[in-house]
Design a protein that fits this description.
With about 250 residues, the chain is mainly α. About 70% of the residues lie in helices and about 0% in strands.
Length: about 250
Amino acid sequence: MTSTSARAATAPAPAPTSRRGGRVRWTVVLLTSLAIVGYAVGTYAQAGLPITASKGGVSATYAERPMAVQVTFYVHIVTAALALLVGPFQFSTALRRRSPAVHRWTGRVYVVGVAVGSLAAFVMAFFNSAAFNGFFGFGGLALLWAWTTWRGYRAARDRDLPGHRAWMIRSFALTYAAVTLRSWLGVLILLQTLTAQGAVDGERFFDNAYAALPFLSWLPNLIVAEFLICRRGLPAYRLIPAGPRS
């Protein structure tokens, strides 16, 4: 598996309507990211340690686990929230142009957040509540999250700016799984509620919805990311290396 190494050709200047649409999408991503960061900090800060089943929510999955696992859970929450908080600002054209030093330093904060958060997430995958589906889904997410971020960091170090942008779009698409996971969870619970026959079983609906999330929370994000990368003329990802030019 390799990424195309050729640098993207210079794309024409986007039209005003395209720039406005981009600002709207960026604002939506920023606001939803901030909302999840606020929710996570507000919810899990109140739960505290040790985690008990009575506290409910996802944190209850780690009740009765060793204290090291519970600490790892909170390390993931803090560092992933940090990456989700600073991530949208890395795609701000105004910030890159006016304060390149700020862009670089917040980028380093993002990379550190992902590095620690992905390692913690991989450890947590062994203790998730969705069995093998959760292990492979969330474990795969953790590995890809670390790998795409590393590729983006290395591209920046090598002054490969098109490659850097492409890999960081992929990286943040995986970071944004924190948002899409909760969005899909709400949609799937709502669909079950609307189609339920008889009494509504909230706990069963939650378990059914959560079983789909280990992959659903991030695979569509990567598809959208690759579409955006191609649309911007950035180096696309290839499953097969490009053949020699004739």
